[in-house]
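I hope you will forgive my troubling you with a question about protein structure. The full record is reproduced below for your convenience:

——
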Amino acid sequence: MTKVNTKKAAPLKLSAAEGESEEQVTARAALRPTITAAAAIEKFPIIEGLELAPLVESLAEQAKAVNSGNLIRVEAMLISQAHTLDAIFSHLARRSAMNLGEYLNAAERYMRLALKAQSQCRATLQTLGELKQPKPVAFVQQANIAHGPQQVNNGPPFQGDTRAQENKNQPNELLEEQPNEQLDTGAPGTAGGVNQAVETLGAINRTENC
């Protein structure tokens, strides 16, 4: 005779704020990361008999520990996942070797999956290393070096530098007549305003014997 589990699952307790409706409480609960993660873990159980409410409480404790700076659980999870991915890589690599002599397509598929698992294992270990020893952040201004002696900086231009203005091509303009300014010597001169009428010179009185 098969035993029937008559134990009821513990209900998930949701607290409502003042003036909050039941629909709003349900919607807020559906967006809580601990509840969504607990629902997914419940659908993919590693241990039989998992219940939603205890899973939510356990995940809330883990999230609180991470918020306070305790990363022991995170580091343990990453190294465990790296070992799991390494085991998957080894299993798929052996399956590829078993099909290599006769079934080349199957061998290639197994090897592709094995290399994907190996790549994920490497990325997981890299994340763990960066978590243990974070790299300092350096802010470096980017510079583009062109071929030759020219250098172009992407930073803001120096306000006091007027060389850029000197390099602008100014349009050729005629020199205007201004005080103390040299005029064009090739232009014809204009007559002055003094002694406009020129009279004939008179006879010069000279002595007969010089």
